[in-house]
Amino acid sequence: MSTNLLSYAGWTFLPNLVTGWLQTLYYGLTVRVGDPKPLPGTPRYNKHRRRIHILVVTAYLLYTIYEADWQIRREGDFYQDLGVSQDIDERGIKSKFRRLAAQFHPDKVTNSEARESESYFVHLRLAQDTLLDPTRRFAYDRFGPDVVNWRHCASVRDYVLAGMQVIAPYYVGSGLVMAILGFLGYLDWGKYWRYASFASLLVFEMHTVTRPYYPPVTTKIFKAILTKVTNHSPYLPFQQLILARKIMLTVFIALSQLGPLLQPQQAQQQNPEQSQRQSIDRLEQLTKSTEIETTRLLALDLAPVAGDEKAMKGVRTKMKDWLIENTVRADPEVRDAVGRVMQKRRVGAPTGARGTR
Fold it and tell me: Which of 10, 93, 259, 306 is the most buried (most CB within 10 A)?
């Protein structure tokens, strides 16, 4: 969790920081000594900064994906711990465990390594017991090592329902955050693709955890590409889901930073009259919303005397006097006259003292 928070927190300051360093280095290498460098705020400076920033965000996006893959590989899984393939049968698991038990059993090692060997042997036995049970193996492949703590589950249906309870808060929370950010205007750029990707991930995860077979897109396409590009074993379904979630969140953050960088070019091509019309429409909507909010607050303040006609008449009279008094005070001639009178007062004279300068 802490690693993920540090990785995502890096998006808030690292791209801008690295962009500034690279732009300074770029000018130091390309601009001759004595020639003026582009000043901040100039079109040339902004163009260079935008391009460098796009490269930095893209590079950091690729690095974050690589980091997520490395984290998954570092944690490993029961198949890797036993040294078997993902399609191994029951006989192969038992045979492999017997060979590992002969090597790592606490009775087979020295006293100095007994404690560490015992904990590792217990882990290997847990991996064997999980993979030998078809129901627990089904749950492990789709929900990960957390299923070993789900003692109340006895059937595939129980494991799927328990897994749904773990998955639901993630998607409900993520959906609410996206809706709130979209309402506040932070996700305007690429809004359609964000929601389409989020819905696709939800459908993919529901299909993965509820079917007795692996999704065809992962077994026929993703697995084939992975075996050709890398040399590590294919992902288990729960590893695919973890990586897909991290990639989706990272891409969303990257799009939030790339959107403003790509919008300036679109703004230059926009018709000035259309831009002015949109500004007027936004100002009109803001004025209407302000008027509605003011009316609501006024009605809320007058709620205690709403049914008392005599009290309402007194409020109207006081409001009328207040408006007249403030109008008179705001008049320039009245303010100048008051200012001249205040200048003639004796410095340090108490209130009510007679005599002027």
Answer: 93
